[in-house]
Amino acid sequence: MRNPALKTAYAIVVLAGVAYAFAALEGPNGIPALLARSRQVADYERQNQQILRENVQKEQRIERLENNPSNRRWRFASALSSPDPAKKSIYSMIVQH
Fold first, then answer.
1. Cα gap 54→62, rounded to integer Å
2. Calculated CA dihedral for residues 13, 16, 21, 23, nearest 10 degrees
3. Per-residue pLDDT tens for 23-62?
4. DSSP 89
5. Taking the mean position of all CA atoms in its chain, how far away is CA 19?
6. Can you give the pLDDT at residue 39?
7. Three-state SS for 67?
8. Distance between CA 24 and CA 62 in Å, rounded?
């Protein structure tokens, strides 16, 4: 690299590469987009954990209702007994008496 023109060309290529890298990293698919995707993944993971917890609770509730018939009758009776006479069924009337 004794030729000054070759040194200048090399410097221009390196600066152009740095400028391109800076523009690419600052653009819409750069570091801000990467951080946004990371936050979105973290949010999805939190939501997924919440849904998994709710599913476990619902499975436990179903298991309790299947294993305890009196609890099951009470839940049905409370669900069916409403102040609206049109929503009452024969089963709810039998359970109440």
1. 12
2. -170
3. 888 877 888 888 999 999 999 999 999 999 999 999 998 8
4. -
5. 37
6. 96
7. helix
8. 53
- Contact present, 80 and 87 (Cβ < 8 Å): yes
Cβ neighbours of residue 80 under 8 Å, at least 6 residues apart?
87, 88, 89, 91, 92, 95
How does the average pLDDT of the chain come out, rounded?
80
Contacts of 87 (CB under 8 A, 6+ apart): 80
Question: pLDDT of 71-89, one tens digit each?
Answer: 666 666 666 665 565 555 5
| Total number of residues shown for the chain | 97
Residue 5 has which token pair?
């023109």
Q: Residue 94 and residue 97: Cα distance in Å, rounded?
A: 5
